[in-house]
Each structure stands twice: as structure tokens, then as C-alpha cells.
Design brief:
Elements: H1 2-31, E1 38-41, E2 47-52, E3 56-63, E4 66-72, E5 74-79, E6 82-87, E7 90-94, E8 98-105, E9 113-119, H2 122-131, E10 147-151, H3 154-165, H4 170-190, H5 194-197, H6 200-203, H7 210-219, H8 227-233, H9 238-249, H10 253-271, H11 276-282, H12 288-299, H13 303-312
Antiparallel strand pairs: 1-2, 2-9, 3-8, 4-7, 4-9, 5-6, 5-8, 7-10
Helix pairs in contact: 1-3, 2-4, 3-4, 7-10, 8-9, 10-11
Length: 322
Amino acid sequence: MPEQHLDNRINNGLSVSIHKKALDQLIAMTDRIPLADGRTPTIVPFLSIIKHSRDIPRSIGVLTPSFCLILQGTKKLYLGQDIFQYSEGDYLASLIDMPASAQVTGATKELPYLGLRIDFTTQEIASVAMEAEINTEPRENDLSAGAFIGKSDAGLLDLFFRLLKLVDKPKEARFLSELIKKEMIFNLLSGGYGHLFFQRVLFDQRSDGVGMAIQWIKENYTRSFTVEELAKSCNMSTSGLHHKFKAITTMGPLQYQKQLRLQEARRLMMSGPIGATTAALTVGYESPSQFNREYRRLFGLPPLQDIKAMRKSSYTWGFEES
């Protein structure tokens, strides 16, 4: 028995060493690419590299469907009432648009935060699951949130290695990168986190259910509705919709709509000379005073002060970077 225990420790230590070596190789490959702080797109259409040379305070944003691997550094994610800390070798997978907040900690110029981001759609995940005939069932009856933290394995890191090699091959990049992306989705669906990565309730938007409700709000966030009306349109009970919606998004349907509205209003004001009243009306608010109250409650400052503070900072940051 002692010998078996020692063998396990040796194997575990070897596995950690190989994993660290693979991460170091990926970091070395990003060193060849000129990176500014923030998000740097690459020639691979869905691949971005994230770099932060200093700590980023907690920022509110919206997670979009993506897969983000940390190569170096540490990040905290605030999702509903839960706080997750993850670091090199860990990844964040987001399956739907999810209001949340996050911060980068411990980043310096000498040892910056580095991450790789893959953007995908739920349709791409569903397509791979169907083509590969992957039948992933939930391990429990309870629904899981539409975003989660996982740990990478050797196979996944190798796929990132192959993807980064294409950055130097523009002729091959567009075609071959799509094949690697499909292989990456397959790896995630068939791995230990597959039951979290593919939740049928999120992907089937053609019939009734909470997936359809989430999609409807995303496409119609400027329109007013009641939870009762939304539930009826999705052939669900009001209590059933509210329970499932909160389990997946960590909030109720009306709060989800409100956060999408406020995030879009903030984006509009940041991107051009649009005042708070115009932004409020554009995203569906009827009362500018209500908009100002809810904006301040979410972002901590009135709209114009918040936008001014963001523009004065050296660079802005949000979940579009991850």
C-alpha cells in the first residue's frame, strides 16, 4: 500500500509538471505576438488574447458565449451570490449572455495576466453534439448556471497550441481553425464537464421552455413584459419559469432584462455622443429618472459621471475581454 501511494504521488507530480510545461509553451507563443493591454484579436476569427499589466478592479459586465483559458494570473468571478477564484490552467465557460462581475488580481508588468478567449455560439455546440452523437445528461435533477469554471487537461492545451500556431499561417488559418474549434468543442462535451457544457434546456429554443424565454428577452430587451406573459408564451407556469430562469442566470427574468438594458445603455454612451436620456429611451426606459436610479444602483455612479470616469481611465475593461 505505501508503494502504491508513493506511485500516485509521483504520477500526480509528473502530471502537474507536464501541465505547467504546456502552459509555459502557450505563454511563449503569445510572447511573439505584439500585445497591448486589453483584448487583442488574432488572424484566427474567433481567437483573442487578453493581457492586463496591472490589477483591474471589480467591473460589471455581461458574459457572452465564450471559452476563456487563463495562461497566467488570477481572476475572481462574481456570479449571483457566488464568488469563484480561478488561475492558470483554469477556464471560464459561458453558454449564454450572463450579467456578472469580475476582477483581475496580482497582475504586474513583469508578470501580467494572460488569457486566451474562444468565441462560439450555442448553435455550434449543438451541431457538434448532434454530429458526434454525444448524449450528455445532467448528473442531477437541478439545473446549473449558464457559466462555470473548469480545469484544462493536456488534450485541451494541445488544441490551443495548434490554434496559436495558425496565427503565423494566414492562408491556412481560417479553414483549419474551424476544424480545431469543432475538435475543442468535442473535447469539452465529452470530458468531465460535459454535463455543464451542454444543457439541453439552453440549446432547444424551438419549443417551450426556459431556453426560449432567455432568447426572447435577449432579442426583445427593449419591450415591456410581465413574467406571467412570458411564462404563458413559453408554455410554462410562472413559478416554474422563475425557478428555472434563476437557476441558470442567477436572477429573475425582469432583473435579467434590466441588466441587459443598462449594459447596452452604457455601451451606447461610451461609443458616441449620446446623453443619458437618449440612451434610456433607446433601451426601453420610459422614465429617465428611473433609469438614472437603476444605473447608479448597478454601476455605482450616475450615468454621466460613470462614463466620464471610464473615459479618463487608461483603458476600459469588461466581459467582452474576459
